[in-house]
Amino acid sequence: MAKTLSEKILQIHTSEEITGPGQIVQVKVDKVLANDITAPLSIESFFKMGAKRVFDVEKVILVCDHFTPNKDIKSAEQVKKVREFAQEQGIVHYYEGGDVGVEHALLPELGLVGPWDVVIGADSHTCTYGGLGAFATGLGSTDIAYAMAFGETWFKVPGSILVEIKGRLNKFVTAKDIILTVIGHIGVDGALYKALEFTGEVISDLDVEGRMTIANMAIEAGAKAGLFPADAKTLAYTSACGRQDRELVLEKDANYEREITFDATKLEPVVSCPHLPENVCPVDEVKGIKIDQVVIGSCTNGRISDLRQAAELLKGNKVAKGVRLIILPATPNIYKQALKEGLLEIFMEAGAVIGPPTCGPCLGGHMGILAAGEKCVATTNRNFKGRMGSLDSEVYLSSAYVAAASALTGYITNPKDV
Amino acid sequence: MFYKGKALKVGDHIDTDAIIPARFLVTTDMEELGKHCLSGLEENFRQKIQPDTILVAGKNFGCGSSREHAPLAILGAGIKVVVAHSFARIFYRNGFNMGLLLLELGDRVGEIAEGDLLEIDTTQNMLKNVTQNVEFELNPISEFIQKILQAGGLIPFAKQRLQGA
Ligand code: SF4
């Protein structure tokens, strides 16, 4: 019988015969990831378990991207702990300083993740690699410690929901609008414990970066993974990153629990309103809300394609008075590429602040915290209460187009109106 | 295991930023994290928590980030069990890994009122609402997770494996 993408990938990582959803299987993992917030706990758990060495120094990845460059003494201590662990263990993929980027933008670019891989990370947006056809999911620090020690973990085989996106995308409608629309439709627990698997003409047309944007937010629908087939585009992308991968094909007659179809031709730019990602509405319904800040960056939309979209609208224009536009290219490579293409100059001419590759304000860490009463349009993935600062601040999630258009007017704005 | 305590209610989709806001994630100390338990929901939520509090939540409790600091903050505030309609997936694993008991009750969770006295017997999969004198059956916990719980959490479970037990 045909298997879902999740089942196919899990099957080649376990000795047990996968029979269907609900089954608990022991799975070998290809990569194990943690960051400056979650690794310290993993390291503590690792030693409490009595473990001495990580299972493979090439397969444990540590990325200090959240509060870096270290925002205060305590975060500096956390990073120090991670750095010392990496040195002692001889971990090959340790990233900090000028090497660091937001982990889920960084790992694909370095060729560390790809189709058919099982990747687990102590970060909920580990699901991003599903865009490349990896079964990737977030776990807690102690689960990660266990995997660091043994190179394996357990999974309950998830049931899968097939999401088909038909048609063509209109101008200014992006991958972000697709995933926000899906979340708005099924709700923040609509895929709880399940995998979302994507197919359809629009999905084949999308570039790999767009697919990663969609996979990234699968967790915002409660999903364990957001998976895409690996086609010629995927393989071209991963081979440019130094890998050799093989196709991963989606079979529609596999055991999908539910099928949802969207016609992209009808989609328009949307935003997700405070304080839950499922509060999605067309941008026109909320246009005119006055904003104080715009953030373009993060593991969702801080890639080169997002910066290009922002530049398209910002070029030759000025950010509205009283609005802070903060742009954080997600990795050093993206930063360099943006520099080469002249995007950074466009941003500076427009009056933006360009920050280093870091999570920064996305999780209310630093470099753009909101005061009480302030409103922000962000290309990030969560708008929970207080996520970017004060409990009385508000975050609206959008694509880079909507974010840039809003920065220019000072109000939530449809990109077609600027 | 047997638990007895008073219900303290919170709503649906309580995310991990509400349980422990990111700005407090600069420590792994349970007691310290416990001081800020649910402060992302209400500034001084910690003051509502008594030594016998049983947290009663709605749908999708613990959604959002994978931070293990969330169950730690709850444990650090002295709460040993959370009863919810349902839990977010990562939080569900983390809770058990840390030794926090998580029980799913489905729609009937809405029948529990603030301050109700609850008795929980995990061996029987039963929750008794003493105040209202009704009993509920809990969703069973999977066998593999029970093994982890029996070992006392994932750390002792791993320890046994490393020692070849
Ligand atoms: S950019 Fe935001 S969502 Fe992505 S890893 Fe960093 S904090 Fe998490």
What would you say this structure looks like, in words?
The complex is a heterodimer of chains A (418) and B (165). Chain A is α/β, with parallel strands linked by helices and 418 residues long. Chain A folds into two domains: 5-263, Aconitase, domain 3 (2-Layer Sandwich); 270-417, Aconitase, domain 3 (2-Layer Sandwich), CATH 3.30.499. Chain A is built from 15 helices and 18 strands. Chain A has helices at residues 5-11, 39-48, 73-89, 103-109, 141-150, 175-186, 201-205, 208-216, 232-240, 283-286, 298-301, 304-314, 332-340, 343-350, 400-409; strands at 24-28, 31-35, 60-63, 93-95, 118-121, 135-138, 152-156, 160-166, 195-199, 225-227, 256-263, 270-272, 280-282, 293-296, 324-327, 353-354, 375-378, 394-397. In chain A, the strands form five sheets. Chain A has a five-stranded parallel beta sheet with strand order 4-3-2-5-6. In chain A, strands 16-15-14-17-18 form a five-stranded parallel beta sheet, covered by helices on one side. A four-stranded parallel beta sheet of chain A has the order 10-9-8-11. In chain A, strand 2, helix 2 (39-48) and strand 3 form a beta-alpha-beta unit. Chain B has 165 residues and is an alpha/beta fold. Chain B has one domain (2-162): Aconitase, domain 4, CATH 3.20.19. In chain B, 27% of the residues lie in helices and 21% in strands. Chain B has six helices and seven strands, in the order βααβαβαββββαα. In chain B, helix 5 packs across helix 6 (154-162). The two termini of chain B are 24 Å apart. The chains are: A alpha/beta (418), B alpha/beta (165). At the A-B interface, helix 2, helix 3 and helix 5 of A face helix 4 and helix 6 of B. The structure holds iron/sulfur cluster. Iron/sulfur cluster binds at residues 66, 102-104, 123, 125, 298-299, 359, 362-363, 380-381 of chain A.
